[in-house]
Amino acid sequence: MQITRKISDDIVYVGVGDKRLARFENLFPLPSGVTYNSYLILDDKVALMDTADSDVTDQFIDNIETALEGRTIDYLVVHHMEPDHGANIKRLLDRYPQMKVVGNTKIETMIHQFFDVDLTDRMVTVKEGDSLPLGKHELTFVMAPMVHWPEVMVSYDKTTKTLFSADAFGTFGDLDGALFNDEVDFPEDYLDEARRYYANIVGKYGMQTQALLKKAAGLEIEMIAPLHGPVWRSNLEYFIDKYQTWSSYEPEEKGVLILVGSIYGHTHRAADKLAAALKEEGVSKVKMYDVSKTDVSYLISEIFKYSHVVLACATYNNGIFPKMANFIHDCQALCVQNRQVAIIENGSWAPASGKLIREELAKMKKMEVLEPQVTIKSSLKKEQEEELCQLAKVFAQSLKEGE
Ligand code: FEO
Hints:
The protein has about 400 residues and is α/β, with parallel strands linked by helices. It has 12 helices and 23 strands.
């Protein structure tokens, strides 16, 4: 049984949705699945744009075979070698003996790393600006290193004005029969997952993403066909604007993200008090998470979203509460920057988490610490309540200043 749809007269989506995979990269929870997108261009020459994860091989091959209607594949264009897209390269090389692989030199190297294959006379090596005529369609290749691996490239079809954008503009989440962005309620149902995908997968490479956006700005693009999530055929500016914001580490929204690492709930009470004080000060967006209960990938997504952050954290083994330490480490690895941060620490005999968090923030770029830092010894007392109210005023003022 094939499940394909056309994205234009002669370009067929042959990708596959996967709701069974629990964690992307065996790391990031996938509550609503993911899609592995692949596109077949049926021109004088037939080109397949990337393959799919090994979990969905059977359906993927079915889709290709049906769309081919007895034809064969002339070119497999490999934009990215991560196995969620590259896993079936060897299988296709075996199945279609006349098929050639199109990619850059790094892609060729990685194909040999992942597979024992002979590419003699089967590799078409391309570099920045090279073109591949297919008939009516002509693909032009644009290198996009580190969006998300070093070998990544994207391609542009000037006939349909389509950018095959590899991981860029991808989204977690299966599509439930939809294919295009205008067939789903993207802001309501997909934006959070798109941000979680960007922040955790590509977030470290903001500069490289900006470089790709600059190159893309020079192309007349009417459709973006990424390797995950919906194909964009309308309102492209909306998503490109999100990418501009995320890749420049600018906050998407003014608001306060409160992250709590609490052992018995006393630190949480302090965070609750601050949240209520923020509301009293008229701060409209306040979002609180327990770092022990929420997968860190969601917290990373939220810190890419909000302008202001509170880290409320117990001291543990003379250090930062482990779940909070892990979150901060992830933020550093993903180059999170340019946020206003306040610290609430707790410790029953030697509170140290505040000082240690401050040291970690100092290693990051443009992380401004808002005062006062509030110290709790075991449980919240009247004096600290007043400090928390003072901190809420500082936040309210800081949020207003940026308006
Ligand atoms: Fe969707 Fe970096 O692979």
